[in-house]
Amino acid sequence: MQTLNRPSRLAAFEDIPQFSLKSKILSYMADQEVSPSFEEYQALNRALQSGDDAMDTVMQWVVQNPKEHRQYFETALYKGLDQLPYEMPVLTDFFRKVEQKPEWYDQQKIDDALRFTYRLGVNNGFILRDLSLMTGYMYPGFNQPLVLTGALKKQAGTRLAETTKWWIDITEEKGFERFNKGFTSTIYVRFIHSLVRYHLGKSEKWDADTWGVPINQFDQAMTNIAFSGVVLIGIRALGIFPSKQEVDSFLHFWKYAGWLMGIDEKWLVNKESDGWKLIYWMHFAHPKSDESSVSLGSSLSKEPFERQYRYMRPLQQKLAYRQHLEVTQFFIGRKKMRQLGLKQRPAAWFAYYLIARNLLLYTGARHSSKIDDFLLRNGRNVQKLGLALYSSKARQLASMHQH
Question: Of the given ranges (115-119, 149-153, 157-161, 371-375), which has the lowest mean pLDDT?
Fold first, then answer.
């Protein structure tokens, strides 16, 4: 069997500490060994050099006749295979696979996860933006496709609107039904990922010896965990303590979202501790933060100044800017703030406010159905309001996905 080369972003196996204090503590908490075995290390190496075989096969067909074949793909996605002028085996194979739910799919868990997500309200957005996204920028492997596709030139608000629009789509009730937006927007994003992989793979600018494959299996799996496992860590830090059933349903929802996005099942987690293990592995799969980390972090921190508030816009923009910085500082600390080129705050006051508010509300909800109903109704409204702050961008995105 041929030995797979190692991209230089991945530390050599012998350089990974097997018995450090950090790994011992995490192994105890996770109730499993978190340092990778040699077999796990090899699997990680392969994942860094693997794309999405099913969609990449479709892409090889699309680029043979880009204009016509892309139109056929979008017809199949938004209207169905029966709307094509004739059968196209490559599209039939792909859509038959993704239309068939995996045998482990549980609709009740999906529905429970949505209720749990709505109840999180504004907390989910703060954690995704100020912890998951900001921390992700510290790992340059994630940033390279953004740098080379010119996404850095986009306003941070546009990038955030794109992600928020997708998140809203998939978290709508029945969003994953075949022709609903959650399903179609996920497959569309998967298509774009494959298109980026195809073009960067042909580009002289992409350094495969350093980075492996663009938007590879491991980086996609870690992005999925940023939406699931990292959110669960974040909400506890902000004073919300989910039940075991809520955790299980939430992870199940994101397992299916990841599956639909083209992530191999072996990189989708069933329990939180599996996510902690993969988060630990990230330290060995990325070099230290670089100038792309500073560019993206600084740009995201200033994103509130792009928001379209209706009243007292300059004041609200400045307030939001400070609030987000305080939440980020609460989660990552001053040292990492400096690494991202972020302005430090005297104290993380807004995070402390969220903790006090959450402890009061979510503890009260356990004893009062009225408070629980308020969290459910108000939480979802607040989440949708987040997208409305980018009203013009949101309208552009909506029209992009309407066929």
Answer: 149-153
Q: How far apart are CA 347 and CA 363, in angstroms?
A: 26
Q: Which two tokens stand for residue 369?
A: 């159905």
What tokens does 63 get?
């680029």
Cα–Cα distance, 374 to 252 (Å, whole number): 25
Q: Name residues whose C-beta falls within 8 Å of residue 196's C-beta, 6 or more positions apart in sequence.
A: 145, 149, 214, 215
Alpha helix (H) residue ranges in 35-106:
38-48, 53-62, 66-78, 89-99
Distance between first and last Cα of the chain? 47
SS3 content of the chain, % helix, strand, coil (to 5): 70, 0, 30
> Of how many residues is the chain composed?
403
Give the burial class of 233: count Cβ atoms within 10 A of its Cβ; 0-12 exposed, 13-18 middle, 19 or more buried: middle
Kindly tell me the burial class for residue 301, based on how many C-beta atoms sit within 10 Å of its own C-beta (0-12, 13-18, 19 or more): buried
Nearest by Cα to 390 from 217, 164, 203:
164
Fill in the amino acid letter for 268. L
* Phi, psi for 312 (deg, rounded to 5): 45, 50
Q: Are 232 and 254 in contact (CB under 8 A)?
A: no
Residue 298 is inside which H or E element, if any? helix 291-301
pTM above 0.90, yes or no: yes
**Measured distance CA(152)–CA(320) in Å, rounded:** 22
Q: Is 152 buried (19+), middle (13-18) or exposed (0-12) by CB count in 10 A?
A: middle
Structural contact between residues 192 and 401, judged by C-beta atoms closer than 8 angstroms: no
Q: How far is CA 384 from the centre of its chain?
A: 18
Nearest CA-CA partner of 44 in 6, 18, 16? 6
Digit-coded pLDDT (tens) for 4-60: 799 999 999 999 987 777 778 878 788 888 899 999 999 999 999 999 999 999 999
Distance CA 75, CA 72 (A): 5
167 burial level (CB within 10 Å; 0-12, 13-18, 19+) = buried
